[in-house]
């Protein structure tokens, strides 16, 4: 079985609203995956993502009936924080979490599309770099960009990465790629819907860290 298929995202309703509880239940499984990657280099990333999820959850559990969808949270915080918003609360946490989710989406899509460095087919550097450039780089100052370059050296081999996604089992590459494609069917629209929500609510910020 695959880690991805164990934690699949649900199909979105026609209005593309994202149910907060379902979303949190699904993304909560993500951080544990970093432990399978075999390098301590990922622990800062894991804890950043964990922090985002914890922050959104903390808001949700205060009043689940009020925060049924992610948009309910953003709208309530916009009213609550006024001029501080959107650089505050769960709105800020989800703003960053969605970038990490976009990174993962582009990385998995690139692997599923068979993009590789023909001279080093067992490296995922090209896939990781593509994901980084499209999802995160513009939000990182030079220091964090340098940290990324260092973390890139700890990136697992393609075969080990696919094995980790298959919970350590030896699975045929084609089967693993099919699982990735299956996972992306609901994952990609969910990430897209969150991006669209930030755009519609004018909640996106482009400062760098
Ligand atoms: C002098 C020596 C100094 C050494 C210092 C070492 C420190 C290590 C720091 C590592 C950086 C780790 C990445 C974290 C970056 C965060 O700064 C950044 C912004 O965070 C946000 C918080 O989330 O900042 C906000 C304030 O402005 C808030 O605090 C917010 O938290 S809140 O609101 O909840 O309180 N965050 C990011 O940029 C998001 C990074 C997401 C990365 C997702 C990566 C998924 C990886 C999937 C693994 C697949 C294997 C791939 C192989 C290689 C992966 C490369 C990973 C690239 C990530 C780049 C990170 C540099």
UniProtKB/TrEMBL annotation:
Glycolipid transfer protein domain location: 18-166
Record key words, sorted: Cytoplasm, Lipid transport, Repeat, Transport
Keyword Repeat: yes
UniProt keyword ATP-binding present: no
Pfam families: GLTP
InterPro entries referenced in this protein's UniProt entry, alphabetically: GLTP_sf (IPR036497), Glycolipid_transfer_prot_dom (IPR014830)
Coiled-coil residues: none
GO molecular function terms attached to this record: ceramide 1-phosphate binding; ceramide 1-phosphate transfer activity
Family from the record: Belongs to the GLTP family.
Functional description taken from the UniProt entry: Accelerates the intermembrane transfer of various glycolipids. Catalyzes the transfer of various glycosphingolipids between membranes but does not catalyze the transfer of phospholipids. May be involved in the intracellular translocation of glucosylceramides.
Name assigned to this protein: Glycolipid transfer protein-like
GN (gene name): LOC115383054
